[in-house]
Specification:
CATH superfamily of chain B: MetI-like
Number of helices of chain B: 9
Order of helices and strands of chain B: EEHHHHHHHHH
Strand order of the largest sheet of chain B: 1-2
Shape of chain B: elongated
CATH architecture of chain A: Orthogonal Bundle
Number of strands of chain B: 2
Radius of gyration of chain B: 21 Å
CATH topology of chain A: MetI-like fold
Number of domains of chain B: 1
Helix content of chain B: over 70%
Shape of chain A: elongated
Strand content of chain A: under 5%
Structural class of chain A: mainly alpha
CATH architecture of chain B: Orthogonal Bundle
Helix content of chain A: over 70%
Number of domains of chain A: 1
Distance between the termini of chain B: 44 Å
Largest sheet of chain A: none
Oligomer: heterodimer
Largest sheet of chain B: 2 strands, antiparallel
Chain lengths: 246, 223
Amino acid sequence: MIEFLGEVAAWFADPATWSGRDGIPVRLWEHLWISGVSLTAAIGVGLPLGLAIGHTGKGARAVVAIANIGRAVPSLGLMGLAFIVLLPLGLGVGPLPTIIALTALGIPPIVVNAYVGLREVDRDLVEAARGMGMRAGEILRRVEIPIALPVILAGVRTSAVQIVATATLAAAIGGGTLGQLIYIGFNVGDQVRIFGAALVVAALSIATEIGFATLQRAATSPGLRDRAYVPTEPAQVGRGGADSSP
Amino acid sequence: MTIGPVDVDWIVDNLDRIGGLVIEHLYLTGIAMGIGLVISAGLALLVRNRPRWYGPIIGFTGTLYAIPSLALFALLTPLTGIGTVLTAEIALVSYTLLILTRNMVEGLRAVPSEAIEAAQGMGYTATQRLLRVELPLALPIILAGVRIAAVTTIGLVTVTALIGLGGLGYLIVTIGTQRGSFGLTATLTGVVLAVGLAVIADLALQALQRALTPWSRGRMAAA
C-alpha cells in the first residue's frame, strides 16, 4: 500500500501528468468551464421558474413532478440520450451533449428550493409589505427573495455539486473533463493513474461543496443567521429531499 | 420494424440479453440496499445510545456522498480491483448510508416522548420498547429514506457500466454510444427501463409503507 501511494506521488510529480491534452490542467479547465456554463444555464432556467411558482403559488404540482423526474432519471442516462440524439446532427462529439445533460440535471434542485424558499416566507410579512404599498415585484425583490435566500442558495449548491460530480461521466460520451483521466486509466488498466485522477476529482467535488456552503452562509442576511431554520440540507418537497451528488 | 427512431427488431432480437441486464441491475441494487440497511441500522442504534456520534457519522457519510461515483469506483480499485462487483458494491453501499442513517435517526427522534414513557410505565424492557413502540412509530420516516436510497441506487448502478459491470448502464453507454443504427434504441431502452425500475421500486415501497403503518394513512399524503 505504501509502495502504491509512492507511485501515485511519483505520478503527480511527473511533468507529463501536467502537460498536453490529457494533462491535469487542460482537463481541469475543461471540467470547470463545462460545469460553469451548465450551472449558469440551469440557474437561468430554474430560478425564474421556481420564483414564479413560489411567488404565485400556482404550479406546485409541477414542482413535485420536476423533483421526482429529476431523481428517477439516471444522470448517465441523460448523458447517453443527449449524445445519441445530437450525434446525427453532427453535434454529438464535443462538449454540447454534456452541457445539455448537466443543465437538465441541475435544474430540479434550483426550482424546488426556490419554490420551497418562497413558500416558507411568513405570510404576515408579505401582507405587511403589501400594506406598506409594495407592488408584487417589490415584495418579491425586497421581502421574499432576501428571506428565502439561504434556501434558494442551498438549491444552487446542490445543483453545483451535482453538476461538478456528474461532469466526470462526460468521459463516457467523449466529452472530456477530468473523468477522461480516470477513463484512460481504466482502459489501460493503470491503477496509479486511476487513483491519482480520482483524487483530483474527489478534491474538486469536495471543494465545490465547501465553496458553495461558504457562499451560502455569507449571503444569509444577518437577521436570519441565528434562526434555527437556516438549512444546510437541501429543501424537501413532497417526499424526501433533493440531495446532491454522487 | 421501427417506431420513430426506435428499432423494435433490435429490441426483440436482444430480449434475452436485455432481461439479463435488468436482473443484473436488480441484483446489484439489492445487495447494496441490503448491506446499506444493515450498516445504517447499526449506525442509527449507535447514535441512539451515543448521540454525540451523530455529527461525525453524518459528516463522514456526507463526505462519501459528495465524491462522484466514477471517482469512488476509481479510489477503491487499488484495494478491491478494477471492475469487480466488490468495488461497485462498496461504493454503492457508501452512497446509501447518508440517507438511510439520517432518516433512521430522525425517525427514532421523532417518536413522541409520551409513547416512550407509556411503554416504560407498562414495564417494557429497552429492547421491547425499541421493537414494539419506537420502530413502528419511526417507520414512515425510515421508509421514506429507503425509498430515496433505492431510487438513487438504481440510478447509480448504471454508472457501474463504466467500470465494465453494467446492468442497464451497459445498454445506455457501452452499446448505446457505439455509432450504429441501434445506438439510440439501446440508450432509450436502458433509460426507460432504469426509470421504470426506479418508479416501480418507489411505488412498491410506498405500498409497503402503507401496509406496515395503517394508522398513519391519513397523514400519508403529506409524507
